[in-house]
Amino acid sequence: MLKKILIGLVVVLVLLQFVPMDKTNPVADPAKDFLVVHQTSPEIATIIKNSCYDCHSHQTEYPWYSNVAPVNFFIKNHILEARKHLNFSLWSEYSDKKRDHKLEECSEAVSEGEMPLKSFTWMHPEARLSDDQKALLADYFKSLRGNTPMEGDTDEH
User: Fold this and answer.
1) 14-42 pLDDT tens trace
2) 152 φ/ψ sector (left φ>0, alpha ψ -120 to 50, else beta)
3) Is 20 inside any structural domain?
4) What residues make up the domain containing 81?
């Protein structure tokens, strides 16, 4: 009986490999992106891209293991949920109040070590934040509160 269950499980896992996962990133207007809207410095932009953008933007870079079921289903669901909660690619579409709240959440999540998730940094060492990087990001997000320019509100002097 156990042998039949194991064979059935293996067959299901093999068949799942043929279920395609859509890895297409939605088209995003770069002018709406958080880093563009806030003219983020290259140093901070690199940290945010490495630690946040795979899940919280339309710039997801899917790793090799996203081709393996059932892991791919977990990853896709995780990304969709993360984008629903916070999407840096759609930053300028948020209201001022929502942006302010998201900045507060970002600062707290980074400073308290809740983000990036341990399950993400385990396979993405470049996303791990040092204590100095956590402080830098948390302070950066705090500094933007109440200073959230609308799309097109750039200072080009």
Assistant:
1) 776 777 778 888 989 999 999 999 999 99
2) left
3) no
4) 29-144
